[in-house]
Amino acid sequence: MDSENTILSVDVEKVIRGKSPRLADRLPRFVINFIKRLIHQDEINRLLSDNRDYNGVELATRILHDLDVTYNVHYSGSRPDPSGRYIFVSNHPLGGLDGMILISYIGSHFKDVRFIVNDLLMYIRPLAPVFVPVNKYGKMRHDNTRLFQDTFNSDAQILYFPAGLCSRLIDGKVSDLDWKKTFVTKAIESRRDIVPMFFSGENSGFFYRLAGLRKKLGIKVNIETFLLPDEMFRKKGSSFDLYIGDPIPYTSLTGEHSHKEWCDIIRQKSYAARNQTR
Same domain, yes or no, for 80 and 217? Predict the structure, then answer.
């Protein structure tokens, strides 16, 4: 791995400047330093530096080990065929560790995995080999659009959080936001079966209270996401459960339902997987 990756892989100031040079020039130094502490920049870079010889799936596995995070996997039906092409879809309760666990587990069973992620995560360069960036807040760059399409046309297994953002407190329960139908459309187009999964876990009460307050105040920017690195480090030594349901053949996604209706049906299957393990 090159020296640039080993020295510093997350730089808040660089990220802000890359997204909005004008904002970067206006932000006082103490605000940037506060954000660095808030997202645990030094701790994240220490993790990456300690594992400088690893990237992709191996790095995700090493980070879980260093954080003493473990997980148990439960199947409710037949396991995915190692020779198949799949889109693995899951709820998104945590915003960090859930993705790491999916990369580590699915990557240990298939030789090639790709994760559809917010393009901001591409600044974590050692994990870039498994990431496929999408811009959730604006227009996608042409090269990223091409990579997105090429990934679905490839033989790589695809990991996908259809909600995009991590779960929020909805009607008193931690639940995903609305799932987007894109994965259904792409499954049909690329002839991939879909594997519904459910991931246990939730963030702190403060995270959900801040999200609720932000919404009440009419603030559109998801400021609570700045807390996600802290939520990750708070879960050192934790154990989680991953429930994997029966693969859904893309050929079964017929015109009987719209793509959005199929999306909602598969979401229900994902949440039901936790109650159907053998």
Answer: yes
Task: Give the model confidence (pLDDT) of 139-178 as tens digits.
Answer: 667 788 899 999 999 999 999 999 999 999 999 999 999 9
Q: How are beta strands 193-199 and 86-90 bridged, if at all?
A: parallel
Domain that holds residue 192: 68-275
Q: Is residue 197 part of a domain?
A: yes
Helical segments of the chain, H only: 3-7, 12-19, 21-26, 29-38, 41-50, 56-66, 97-109, 142-153, 182-190, 205-216, 228-234, 259-272
Q: Domain check: are 142 and 103 in the same one?
A: yes
Rounded Cα distance, 55 and 128, in Å: 8
Exposure class string for 91-100: b at 16+ Cβ within 10 A, else e: bbbbbbbbbb
Q: Which two tokens stand for residue 139?
A: 């227009």
Asked if residue 60 is part of any domain, the answer here is: no
Q: What is the pTM of this model?
A: 0.90
User: Using one digit for the tens of pLDDT, what is the confidence trace for 83-116?
Assistant: 999 999 999 999 999 999 999 999 999 999 999 9
Asked if 231 and 158 sit in the same domain, the reply is: yes
In terms of domains, do 43 and 76 share one? no
Strand order of the β-sheet with 239-244 is: 70-75, 239-244, 193-199, 86-90, 157-160, 113-118, 131-134
193 and 81 part of one domain:
yes
